[in-house]
Structures are given as structure tokens and as C-alpha cells.
Design a protein that fits this description.
heterodimer; A: about 280 residues; mainly alpha; MetI-like fold; 11 helices; elongated; B: about 575 residues; alpha/beta; Rossmann fold; 7-stranded mixed β-sheet; 6-stranded mixed β-sheet; about 35% helix; globular
Chain lengths: ~280, ~575
């Protein structure tokens, strides 16, 4: 239990630091300055602009603060919707079995062969102009349920065999009650880990699509900041401050989420739980 | 001759916060080369802790706090954990409980053996080891799931003896096996131990198995050694009241069973199997189906309530019968009828009545409780869900049911399942069944995972359900002696077919079918003087069984309508 707590703790510390930056920052700076023409152009970090400014005249401190919030929002939206749909399908398939299971498994297996980024690029590019961070979250949610559906179904198959599930059937509980009251509580740590993993995957997908320029052009998400930085030639101009910001935040975000998933996964592992 | 293992005043303590639990106190024991020592005690008596201390496998917070552990004169307490680990399995080896489930499922047996044996694991050596435990060399190419429980257990024994250890510690090596396989595996273990001349410590709580397999016995209770001595002396003149009680609590087939309930059938038909068959798997493009049950027919009437037991080896189809009655398993052919209605067709109110009236107790009291909820919920849930009681009344009835099974409600109802012992949980399962006043209770190996003293108490409760609550019980077991003692009717099942059925006294005291004789022959009697059968006799009985394959069951003095394979009851 000790080692897994260190991973869990380290992950939580990293995410807490990031949250402090984003939430604290939103009180300290004026987020209106995250949009073009609110600051002098292409200035290195200084007392007035501690993170510098970009070539369109955005102040990069509010850009990073707002970008972190928007990117996490996309991840939460996609991850939560993905888990809700995925879990529902997983319980339907795992608990009822038979042709329901066969149908759901077929659809999930087929869709899992579709390369995620390609499909999302097609979906995202069919939203010309109207793309916002919310629609981006919904687009990513369209595919985010596949992995949870598959992995949670496997867990349901295990839990379904448990003596207490059979006892619940003998106690006259119906299928839905058994799922909600008997199975879900025992799968909570696993569902938690799956949720964090889905959020993490959602953020990764959003950054990938946005770095290609297919995101919300009017919103300074982290992925769009990466896109602007690349398309405006930040590397050639040696504007290191423009590059460093989003890259460091993304690293902290992904490492923190990764450690959290690992920590929760071990916590959800019944073999470790039994020791506890 | 100096002993292989010499324990002098051994003490093991678990330190949990400020609490110190002395799991083993001042135990002194010797085991000589070539000797088999039985270490007996109930769960929590410290026998496994003692073995782990010798193995150097105690986990913190457990620690050896007193005494000496001498292996061939060398004090193991002086060794570093690394040095101690180097002794395994070269000088001490361990066959843990449920060892057969410790084989890695994705590795072939050969790979598992190479991992343990190391570079010495040539194909010839592996074949030789497998041969020593009576397995063909081809087993090395198999995966664990392709082997039976007995074969896997033998592979584990082969692993344990691979480095010719001086001392083998086997912790309940046969607890998950049926009697026939148990005897085969114990014979294998004895044969390799005798050939190596090593010492064997057999840990267990089955006094019958001890009487048949060891030369000396040590009885432990609450961490202390009660007594140790030659097995014949222990059984003829036990030195302590506790040992005497352990020996007395073993159910035997000795002509003293209570008379079965055999009044004439009066009530309506409760349960009927109409030529029920079940096979698993099969279908288009799949391997052929495996038949678990071939056309079984029998009837159970509501009154008088009876205990019908189903006995047989693992894989004989016993548990399939339980699943069919509960509606968890659908028959491939025929119908299971409850009060005349096919249970697969039951809907609505009829289905709820069926659910309430047919209850079950399963083998594993650990998994039967949802770890997320307090124990009270498990008892109150069915009351609420069937609309029998709610709120305060449900609580009061749950408390009353606890008292009925000898538990103090205040001490158990507000606990979480993991805070209770296995015995307490199994009693609660009986209490739960009692609460619903079912008509039929399926008890699937309800005592195979509890201690001997509790076994008697729980079986007593089953009899009490029949006598005072009018509940019929289908008792599924591989333990012939308990079946003999509690049941009113018995069905002996072999490979999905009933081979002999009827009055348990007739069936068990004067078995007519070779398979029943084989099962009885394999029961380890708690009497060291009585022989435990011979392989030749076993082969002879197996051959007789094979010759009678597919024959009609032998019916023994059966008062009620008897089971007949592949023939509807109505036709008789």
C-alpha cells in the first residue's frame, strides 16, 4: 500500500500545482488579455508580461491560465461522457450477455480498429468555423467510450460471478438493482481509474487535433497555443518563452494524470485490495 | 540421529500498532529424516504461521521473536533473508494451500518448471520429475488450464521435490480435491518423500487424512502445541480433551446415523426433474459440447421435508444440479419443475414466489457477502425486496434469525463482512435462508471451507431447518460421511449420471455400485489401523465402473419415488 500511495500522492501533488496555477492565475491576471491585440507583440518575459507575449499580441500568462482551464474542460467533458456511455454499454454487455453482449462487442471491436486521430480529424473538420472548446469535447466523446466499454465489461464479467451477486439474485433483486447496488460500488475504484484514463486520453486527443489547427480558433486552449506557436514560426524566431509555457504545462498535466491512473489502478486491483 | 528440523521454544509475534499478537508460543518440535509429521489445528491455531517461519516467508508485521529453528543443526534465525531464500527449494520446499492455482496460466508447465529448477531443467530432468509424480512427460507441453486439479497439484509436488529437499512442508495439499483424487495425490506425495528420504510436515485439519498419511502428529491450538506423539497413540489415547474432541467431531460411517425421515409422501410435489440434461459449450464451429448431466429425473415432495444429498467427485455434475434448481443454469433438454411449473417459464408473481421459496447456501462464505455493505443489509435485503418486512421489523427479524443460528446480533449485524470469521459468515448464510422461510434450500458444499467443530454445528442447523421449519434441503457434497449422517435420501452421481440412489444407510453401509464402493474406499478413516485401500483395488473398481457405464442406477430401498436416469418419473 505504501508504494502505491507515493505514486498517487505525487500525481495528486502535480495536478494540485497545476490547479493552483490555473485557478490562482485566473484571479491574478485579466483573462481578457488572452486574446489578440491586448499586449505589445512578441515581447520576451519582463516585469509587465512575466510569460512574454506572442506575435498576435496575446499576453501569454492569461493564455496559459485560460488554456489550462479550457483544455481540462475538454478532457472532463469527453472523459465523463465517454465513461458514462462506455460503462452503460459494459454493464449491458457483461451482465445480460447473449446477443446483447455479442452486438455491443462487435460494434466496439469494429470501432476500435478505426484510427482515433484520423476519425477525429474528419469529424472536427466537418465543423468549419463553429468549433468551440465544448464542441471539441463532444467530438472527442464520440470515440472516447470504446476503451472503457471494453475494459469495464471484462471487470463486470468477473464481478458477475461473485457469490454476493448470486445472493442478490436469490434475494429477488432485478438486473438493474444488481448492477447499481451490488456491482457498481465494488467497481468504484476501477471506474475511477477508467475515468481518469479517459480524461487523460481526451486531453491528448484534443491537443493532437488542435495542434493540426482543427480546434477552436477563437479560444486559447493549450493545443491551439501549440498550433499558433508552430504556424507563426516561434522556433525560427527563437521565441523560447512561447514554446516553453504550453509544453511544460502539458508535461505536468500528463505526468500527473498518468501517476494518478497508475495509483488508482493498483488501488482497484483486487489482489492489492485484499491485502489492505 | 539428529533431526532434520528441530524447533526449540519457537515464538512468532505479529505487532499491529500497540497490540502484540502471539501467533505461535513456545513450540518445540522435532522431525526426523524420512518421517511424516502431521500438524493439526483449526484456522487461527498458528500452524501455517509456524510453517512460514520455518520457510523464512513470514511477512511483516510477523516476526520470529523467540526460540531456535534448526535445520540439520543450522540455526535459520541467524540467516539473512537472502541466505534463507537460497535454501528454498533446495533444502526446504513448500507446497502451499491451493498450490494448483499458483501455476502461471500463460506459461506451459515446462516453462514453470524451468523457472523454479533453473539451468538444471533439461527435458530429461523434467520428464523424470513428472514421472516421479505419476504424470506422463507430455504434461510438460500443456498449459495449466488443460490439466485437472489433481494433475496440477502433482505438478506442484514435482516442483517442490525438484531439488531433493531435506524437508517438505505441505499445507493442506489436497483440501480442494475430491476423495479419489485426494488419495492419489497423497500417495504420490508419500512415495516421493519416501524415495528422497526427506522429512515431511503435513499441515491440515482433516483428522482422517492425518490418520492415514502420517506417522507422528502434533496438535496446535491458539498458537500453542497441545500435544505431539505417534499417530496411533494420539487416536487411541488422546492426551488432551481438545484432541479427543477433534477426533470425536469427525463424522464417520459407522452404523450410528440417525434414521432417515421415511414417512409416506403426503404433500404436493415440490420439485421435479424431468429428464434434465445439461451440456456446456458446443455449437457451430466450436468444439463438441461437454455433457455435465445426462437425463436426470427425480421428484421431491413438500411434505415431509427431507434432506436429499447429491454426492460425487468434482466434475460429476453435482453443482450443475444446484444451478438448475436455482434457475442460474438452463437445461439443455428436459425441464426443472417447481410446484409443477417449468422454472424457465416462470414470470411475474410466480417467479417472485419461486425466488423466495427456493434459497441457497454456497460453499464460499467469503464471497457471499458484498464487501461494500454491512452484514445487516445482506439479511434485511431479501425481506425488503420480497415485501416481507421493512425498517425496524426487518432489523428485528434479522436479529432473531441471528440468535436462531447461535450468533449475538449486536456483535455481527453492524460489522462489515471482512470483520467476521468464515464460520460466523456461514452461520449468517443459514440465518439468511431461515429468514425467508423457504420451502427448498440448495446447500452446495456448505461445510467444505469451515473448521471441523463448525462443520458439525452447521450440519446440525440444516437438520434443524428440516425438523423445525419444514424446509427441504438439497445437500450437495463430496463428503460421504456428512451425507450419511444428515440425509434422508442420497444420489450418487458419476460423470453426470446417477449410479446408485436411495436410503443413505443402505447406500453407504452396503454399497452396491462399484463407484460408491470406490468413493467409500477412498475416504480417509480416522483410524490409523485401517488400511486406506490399494491402487490395485482402485483400478479394479474403476474397471468395474467403466463396465457398468450407462447402466440404470441401482435403487436402494427407496420409500419415495426414485431417481431414474433418462426415464420420466411419470412412467413408473
Amino acid at each position: 500500500m505504501r508504494q502505491l500511495n507515493t505514486r498517487l500522492t505525487l500525481g495528486l501533488v502535480l495536478l494540485a500545482l497545476l490547479a493552483a496555477f490555473a485557478i490562482g492565475g485566473s484571479f491574478v491576471t485579466d483573462l481578457e488579455n488572452a486574446y489578440p491585440l491586448s499586449a505589445p507583440i512578441a515581447k520576451a518575459p519582463s516585469h509587465a508580461f512575466p510569460f512574454g507575449t506572442d506575435t498576435k499580441g496575446r499576453d501569454l500568462l492569461p493564455v496559459l491560465v485560460l488554456g489550462t482551464l479550457l483544455t481540462v474542460k475538454i478532457g472532463l467533458l469527453a472523459g465523463t461522457i465517454g465513461i458514462l456511455i462506455g460503462t452503460t454499454l459494459a454493464f449491458l454487455a457483461g451482465h445480460y450477455g447473449g446477443w446483447i453482449d455479442a452486438a455491443i462487442r462487435f460494434v466496439v471491436d469494429v470501432l476500435l480498429t478505426v484510427p482515433g486521430l484520423l476519425a477525429l480529424v474528419v469529424l472536427a473538420s466537418s465543423f468549419p468555423g463553429a468549433m468551440t472548446s465544448t464542441t471539441m469535447g463532444l467530438v472527442i466523446a464520440c470515440l472516447a467510450w470504446r476503451e472503457p466499454a471494453r475494459s469495464i465489461r471484462a471487470q463486470v464479467l468477473v464481478v458477475r460471478q461473485a457469490g454476493y451477486v448470486q445472493m442478490a439474485r436469490l434475494s429477488g433483486l432485478g438486473g438493474l438493482s444488481i448492477i447499481v447496488r451490488e456491482m457498481v460500488p465494488n467497481l468504484l475504484p476501477y471506474l475511477g481509474a477508467a475515468l481518469v484514463a479517459a480524461i487523460s486520453a481526451g486531453i491528448l486527443a484534443s491537443v493532437g487535433i488542435e495542434a493540426l489547427g482543427l480546434g477552436a480558433r477563437d479560444e486559447p486552449t493549450l493545443g491551439m497555443t501549440v498550433y499558433w506557436m508552430m504556424s507563426e514560426g516561434a522556433f525560427i524566431r527563437g521565441m523560447w518563452w512561447w514554446i516553453m509555457g504550453p509544453v511544460v504545462i502539458l508535461i505536468v498535466l500528463f505526468v500527473g494524470l498518468y501517476l494518478l491512473v497508475i495509483g488508482l489502478d493498483e488501488f482497484a486491483n483486487p489482489r492489492l485490495r485484499r491485502l489492505g | 540421529m539428529s533431526p532434520v528440523l528441530d524447533l526449540l521454544g519457537l515464538g512468532v509475534t505479529y505487532t499491529l500498532g500497540r497490540a502484540r499478537i502471539e501467533a505461535v508460543r513456545n513450540v518445540s518440535l522435532q522431525v526426523q529424516a524420512g518421517e511424516r509429521l502431521g500438524l493439526v489445528g483449526e484456522s487461527g491455531s498458528g500452524k501455517t504461521t509456524l510453517a512460514l517461519a520455518v520457510m523464512g516467508l513470514l511477512r511483516p508485521p510477523g516476526r520470529v521473536t523467540a526460540g531456535e529453528i534448526l535445520l540439520d543443526g543450522q540455526d535459520l534465525r541467524q540467516l539473512t533473508p537472502e541466505q534463507h531464500a537460497a535454501l528454498r527449494p533446495a533444502r526446504i520446499s513448500y507446497v502451499p494451500q491451493g498450490a494448483m492455482n499458483s501455476l502461471n496460466p500463460v506459461l506451459r508447465i515446462r516453462r514453470s518448471m524451468q523457472d523454479v529448477i533453473g539451468p538444471a531443467a533439461t527435458p530429461e530432468r523434467i520428464a523424470e520429475l513428472l514421472d516421479q509424480v505419476g504424470l506422463p512427460a507430455t504434461v510438460a507441453r500443456r498449459y495449466p488450464h488443460e490439466l485437472s486439479g489433481g494433475m496440477k497439484q502433482r505438478v506442484c509436488i514435482a516442483l517442490a521435490i525438484s531439488r531433493d529437499p531435506r524437508l517438505i512442508i505441505a499445507d493442506e495439499p489436497t483440501s480442494a480435491l475430491d476423495v479419489v483424487t485426494q488419495r492419489q495425490v497423497m500417495r504420490t506425495l508419500q512415495a516421493v518423500q519416501e524415495r528422497l528420504g526427506s522429512a515431511l510436515i503435513l499441515i491440515g485439519h482433516d483428522m482422517g487424512l492425518m490418520a492415514q498419511s502420517v506417522q507422528r502428529m502434533a496438535v496446535m491450538r491458539g498458537g500453542e502445541l497441545q500435544e505431539a506423539g505417534p499417530v496411533t497413540r494420539i487416536f487411541t489415547a488422546p492426551g488432551t480433551a481438545y484432541t479427543a474432541e477433534l477426533i470425536r467431531s469427525i463424522p464417520t460411517i459407522d452404523g450410528t446415523a440417525r434414521r432417515p425421515v421415511r414417512e409416506d409422501v403426503a404433500g404436493a410435489e415440490l420439485l421435479r426433474f424431468d429428464d434434465v440434461a445439461k451440456s456446456y459449450g458446443g455449437g457451430w464451429l466450436r468444439p463438441p459440447a461437454a455433457a455435465a448431466l445426462h437425463g436426470l429425473s427425480f421428484t421431491l415432495h413438500e411434505s415431509p421435508p427431507r434432506i436429499l444429498s447429491v454426492v460425487g467427485q468434482s466434475g460429476s455434475g453435482k453443482s450443475t444440479i444446484g444451478g438448475l434448481i436455482l434457475g442460474f443454469v438452463r437445461p439443455s433438454r428436459g425441464a426443472v419443475r417447481y410446484r409443477g411449473a417449468d422454472i424457465a417459464q416462470l414470470r411475474g408473481a410466480a417467479r417472485r414466489d419461486f425466488r423466495r421459496e427456493v434459497q441457497a447456501i454456497f460453499q464460499d462464505p467469503y464471497s457471499a457477502f458484498n464487501p461494500f455493505y454491512r452484514v445487516a443489509r445482506t439479511l434485511e435485503l431479501p425481506l425488503r425486496s420480497f415485501g416481507l418486512a421493512s425498517g425496524e421489523e426487518a432489523r428485528a427479524r434479522a436479529a432473531a434469525a441471528c440468535r436462531d443460528v447461535g450468533l449475538h446480533p449486536g456483535q455481527v449485524l453492524d460489522r462489515f463482512p471482512h470483520q467476521l470469521s468464515g464460520g460466523q459468515r456461514q452461520r449468517l448464510m443459514v440465518a439468511r435462508a431461515l429468514l425467508l422461510r423457504p420451502k427448498l434450500l440448495v446447500a452446495d458444499e456448505p461445510v467444505s471451507m469451515v473448521d471441523a467443530s463448525l462443520r458439525a454445528a452447521i450440519l446440525e442447523l440444516l437438520v434443524d431447518l428440516r425438523d423445525h421449519h419444514g424446509i427441504s434441503v438439497l445437500y450437495i457434497t463430496h463428503d460421504l460421511a456428512t451425507s450419511y449422517r444428515v440425509s434422508d435420501e442420497v444420489m450418487v452421481l458419476r460423470a453426470g449420471r446417477v449410479v446408485e440412489a436411495g436410503d443413505p444407510i443402505a447406500v453407504f453401509e452396503r454399497p452396491a455400485h462399484p463407484y460408491t464402493r470406490l468413493l467409500l474406499d477412498c475416504v480417509p478413516w480416522p483410524d490409523p489401523a485401517r488400511p486406506w485401500g490399494t491402487p490395485a483395488r482402485e483400478a479394479e473398481l474403476q474397471a468395474e465402473c467403466a463396465a457398468m457405464d450407462g447402466a440404470a442406477p441401482i435403487l436402494r430401498d427407496f420409500a419415495a419415488p426414485a431417481p431414474r436416469a433418462a426415464e420420466p418419473v411419470a412412467g413408473r
